[in-house]
Every structure is written in structure tokens, then in C-alpha cells.
Design a protein that fits this description.
This protein is α/β, with parallel strands linked by helices. It has two domains: 279 residues, Spore Coat Polysaccharide Biosynthesis Protein SpsA, Chain A; 69 residues. The protein contains twelve helices and ten strands. The chain has a ten-stranded mixed beta sheet with strand order 7-5-6-4-1-2-3-8-10-9, sandwiched between helices. Helix 10 packs antiparallel against helix 11. The radius of gyration is 25 Å and the shape is elongated. The two termini are 36 Å apart.
Length: 371
Amino acid sequence: MRAHGSPLAGNHGPTISVSCIDRFRRNWNLHVPHTFSGSCELSVVIPVYNEEAGLDALVERVTAAARAIFADNYELILVNDGSKDGSWAAICRHADHDPRIVAINLARNHGHQLALTAGLNHVRGELVFVLDADLQDPPELLGPMLEQVRAGYDVVYGQRIKRHGETAFKRGTASLFYRMLSAMVDTPIPRDTGDFRLMTRRVVDQLNAMPERYRFIRGLVSYVGFNQTAFPYERDPRFAGETNYPLRKMLALAADAVTSFSVVPLRFASHLGMLFGLAGLAALVWVAWGWLRGGTVEGWASLAAVTLIMGSVQLLVMGVFGEYLGRMYMEAKQRPLFIVSEVRRHPIAANQEPEVAAAAIQTDEGIRVAG
């Protein structure tokens, strides 16, 4: 990992200079000890799915990076998204020993974007730092990203200039996706970015106010606006385990991105219809011209081929309309975005737990539902 234009150096466990830490503490009054009776300076939100192998290293590096700058005035929110391994047990173990860690267990696997939404709905920090659990996005970059916030930016998003440990296919498809998305949407969405970013509380409050189900959070952040800037960095290889984002999930995320921020597919269907309509008209003129000249009009094979092509186009157009219509149907039912089965804190923190600023209710069974 190397942050370009930052005081960090090295590829393994970079450190933040003492002068940098002191400057942050002076500017943010970080000498104030952390209490659990109100807000804190920083909330770190990390969705977790089958990350048991690297969870200890994740907590160690994140807490070290946050504590170096914010002392104890931060919280680490780990959202277990229905993991099938021992991730939840590992999260609980850390939460039981550290009052700054909040453990959230979703009732089932809701997907990365909704797990991240669940974490954002529980934040108490004035700043919110989002990263993945695989440690490809180094938590040590918190310091230099904070410098950009202090310069007046509300969103500092990590922009990947290199992707270490990823296949050529993954890099190629990611590059193609962002370039196609940029050409299709009205809201500019930065290329080569993920959910790795540092945001101010007012941005997160706007995100939490959006009730839509099919969420593409990096697009929603762009839609919100405010002052945003890129933070170029080199993405590290995965620390442990295997990727939890296979091609199927990548395609689903791409569909969410396109349908959430663009009506170009609908316009494309209309343009395709006009194109084939003009082609049909041209064919009709050609047939009429041949008939007027006394020729024999033949071509049942070509007619069958044209019929098949037109049928395929019609099915394609119906599929595009169906995709949008299906999403409208799911949104209209207004089911909760996610269901939280348990929120676990250290006893010291639990006794003084503040009200969660989220759209949540408490059921008779003790399950907190948010939507």
C-alpha cells in the first residue's frame, strides 16, 4: 500500500508521524477522553462477511490507526452480514473486551450495500470512515484523508490507481464498468473508486434519509453533493481468505448502479425500436421496388430471420422494462431495508448507549428492524 501525496510510506503496516498525530489532536481537541453518553469524533463502519481469518488483524490495525489520532474518542462498528464462518463470534469477542467496538448482527445476509447502510444508521461520530474488512483499503490512510477534511472537504473518497493482487479480468471489468457508467448517468460518479471514504456527519445524515432499497452507495454519495475530493492510493492484496464478490455479485451491483442512476437503458430500447422500424421500412421499399419492376419477390428464409431478430429485440426491450418495473414493485412494498437481530456492546458502553439515529423500531421479540 502506498498513498500518493501522503506522509505514509512502506507496503506493510505504515505508520503515521508523531508530528502529524500531534497536529490532528491540537486541531480537533482530541485530548478529551471518550464517553459513551453522546457523540464521538469518529465512527469507523466495516461490513463483515466470512472474514474470520483476517478479523483480528483488521481490528488491530483499525484501532491503532484511529487511536493514534483520536485517542479513545472513536467507535468501531462491525456489521456481520450473515457470515457462515466464525466471524460473528470473533466480533463479539472483540466487543466484549473493547468498549469502543459496536457489534451488529444482521438476521440474514442482506448484501454488502445494505450491511454498510445498517452500520451508517448506527453511527454517532462527527466523522465517518468506511472501509472493507479484507484490508485491501489500508486503515492507516485515515490520517492523510483527515487532512483533506480539515481543508474543507465533506467527502474524501479513495481512488485506486493500482490494484495489487487482483486478476487482469477483475481490473479490466472494473475499468469497463466505471467508464460505461460514466457515459450513462447524469450524476458524475468518480471512476476507480469503492466505498473506501471519509465523510462528515452531514453527508451521512443525507444518506440515511434515503429510503431506496437498491443502493449503490458510492453513487448516492456523489448524488448528495457537498465538497468532495479524490485521494489516490494503491490498493493492497486481500489480507486473508477469498473474495466475497464473485462475478454474479459484481453484475448485480452493476445493475443496481445503472437502474438507480440512469434511464439510458429505457431510451436505448426506444432507439433500438426506431432503428429496426427504419430497417423494416427500408426493406418494404426494396420489396415494392422489386415488385414494380416485375421481379419475383423471394426470401422466406430471410423473412424468418428478420422475424426472429425482431422477436429477440422485443424480448430484450421487455426485459429492460421488466427490470425497472420489478424494482418499482419491490420499492412500493416498503419492507425494511435490513433486520438486525442483535446489537452487542461492552457492558460499560451498553449501560450508557445513546439513541440510535436511524429508522429503527423494536419488535416484541427484541429484534431491531430498520428500514
